[in-house]
Amino acid sequence: MKERTASNVHEAFVGEAKAYQRLLMFAKKAEEEELPQIAHLFRAVAAAEGVHSRRHFALLESVADTQTNLERVFQSENAVNGVHYLRMLQEAEQDGEETAALVFSQARDVEAEHANLYKRALNDVIAQRSTEYYVCTIDRA
Ligand SMILES: [Fe+2]
Ligand SMILES: [Fe+2]
User: Is residue 127 part of a domain?
Assistant: First the structure.
């Protein structure tokens, strides 16, 4: 794919993925305000934006077999927690942005745990061991 189009596809993917998450948060708010039909609307449009984001994603990256996907996300979690979040955390601290620093720091710690989960799964793909997962549901800063 030509560089400009690839850049546009990436931009479109980020925009659609952002819209998807925004709309789900708006739906939650509408529910809190006892407006279930508006929540329903936000969720329906979010689902469509999710489809758009996945179509863009499919142009950017191929989805491989599960063993390869596990290896890939393991590497990715390590890079996110050891490099990217570390830098963002340091820069937020330098900027005196305490809330952003806290959110980066907590996300970084969880990414490390994601890497551990993937590593365990990689060692255990065939066994398909049943596991319970705990997900923090706090989605505000
Ligand atoms: Fe869209
Ligand atoms: Fe993660």
Answer: no
- pLDDT of 69: 95
Mean pLDDT in order along the chain per 10 residues (141 residues): 96 98 98 98 98 96 93 94 94 98 95 93 80 85 81
Ligand nearest the Cα atom of residue 80: 2
Q: Are 117 and 103 part of one and the same domain?
A: yes
Q: What is the DSSP string of 3-43?
A: HHHHHHHHHHHHHHHHHHHHHHHHHHHHHHTT-HHHHHHHH
**C-alpha dihedral (59, 73, 92, 110), degrees to nearest 10:** 140
Q: Tell me the residues surrounding ligand 2 (ion) with CB < 5 Å.
A: 111, 114
What is the distance in A from the centroid of ligand 1 to the CA of 33?
Answer: 25
Predicted confidence at residue 112, as pLDDT, reads 92
Residue-range definition of the domain harbouring residue 54: 3-60
Question: How many angstroms does the Cα of residue 77 sit away from the middle of ligand 1?
Answer: 27
- Residue 29 and residue 10 share a domain: yes
In this structure, what CATH number is given to the domain that contains residue 10? 1.20.1260.10
